[in-house]
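To whoever is on call:

I kicked off a structure prediction for a single chain this morning and the downstream step that reads the tokens threw a length-mismatch warning. I double-checked the sequence; it's 153 residues and nothing unusual in it as far as I can see. Pasting both halves so you can look.
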Amino acid sequence: MNRKFRLICSLLCVVCSSYSVSFSAEILKLNVESLFELAEQRSSAIRVMDYRIEESQTAYKAARSERLPELSAGVSVAYLGNGYITDRDFSNGTSVSIPHYGNNIAIEASQVVYSGGAITNGIKAAYIGRKMATINRERTSNDIRFALLGYYI
């Protein structure tokens, strides 16, 4: 009797749990366009490609900024104490008054006149890198869409 009771209870639990799970599941109907939109939003590969596009745009802006003039400025302030002068055998020491404050201000401007085409070619390479990042993102997106369409069909 004990064995029968356990068997009946376990079967009843299995049937009740599968019955309640089937009612709690929500059916989601997707068309192809919404499936593609959902994949675009949640794909980690596409997010990585978007990050690479941002990186390539930053590299392109940095390469273009190489043509701009460079300006640098520097300021320094110094303080000197009084000096102490002695003989070679460190006898007969004398204190000497020295000007205590000093300052230095420097401004430097530079412009590349000739670089042998390095700046222009760097800009072209960054532009091509930006184009390649965009093409790779589109290719990754299309690969994901084709895979999802295959699963959908």
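Update from on-call: the warning came from a stale cache, not from the record. Cleared it. Sanity check on the structure: The two ends are 52 Å apart (CA to CA).
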